[in-house]
Design a protein that fits this description.
The chain is an alpha+beta fold and 182 residues long. The chain is globular, with a radius of gyration of 16 Å. The protein contains four helices and eight strands. It has an eight-stranded antiparallel β-barrel. A hairpin with a 5-residue loop joins strand 2 (40-47) and strand 3. It has helices at 19-35, 63-74, 77-88, 121-131; strands spanning 5-14, 40-47, 53-60, 90-101, 111-117, 136-141, 160-163, 173-181. The longest helix is centred in the N-terminal third of the chain and has 17 residues, at 19-35.
């Protein structure tokens, strides 16, 4: 997952105790199933502060490729065979940010992700120039319309997401995620 891509940051809320069941199914069936249709599956994580949350990223070269790949996967045999088992683990799978950035490769160490709503672009750019020069994988909201409405994404938000860097200023609305790779 390198270069500038369309990236989905997906945060699933799961039924209590279902996270390991979903992770096992995801790793066994959904990684290769998505990669087979052109989806780059990146980091997959347990949220260390919420035992019922699974966080993962996937990337596409552009919006048109995203739509085609999602149609192929969700209309294909892997999803058809395993969707009921996957959906049975989930309370909510609609907490999805559509971003533009470099993606995020699988890692084997704890990751700190910051999801930030800066007050405005100029304030963020000034902050980034001073504090985010060495972060891994800085992402910005992708403004394109979600062209695969079967999978909702959060809309109307201007966010920045970065990994393994400082937290946002206290006056900005931000959430810090402590993530353990699967």
């Amino acid at each position: 997952m390198s270069g500038s891509s369309i990236v989905e940051l997906r945060q699933y809320t799961l039924h209590p105790g279902a996270r390991d069941t979903l992770i096992e199914l995801f790793e066994r069936e959904f990684v290769t199933g998505q990669e087979a249709v052109g989806i780059a599956v990146g980091g997959r994580f347990r949220d260390l502060d919420d035992p019922d949350r699974f966080v993962w990223l996937r990337a596409f070269p552009d919006m048109e490729s995203r739509r085609r790949s999602l149609e192929a996967f969700y209309g294909g045999p892997v999803w058809r065979e395993h969707r009921e088992a996957a959906n049975a683990t989930m309370v909510d799978s609609d907490d999805v940010l559509l971003l533009r950035g470099p993606g995020f490769a699988a890692v084997d160490t704890e990751v700190l992700a910051t999801v930030c709503h800066p007050p405005d672009a100029a304030a963020f750019d000034a902050y980034a120039a001073r504090h985010l020069t060495r972060v891994h994988a800085l992402h910005r909201t992708e403004p394109a319309v979600n062209d695969f409405p079967a999978l909702p994404v959060r809309e109307g938000e201007d966010v920045r997401v970065w990994f393994n860097g400082p937290t946002a200023p206290p006056s900005w609305r931000a959430r810090r995620l402590r993530l353990e790779p699967v």
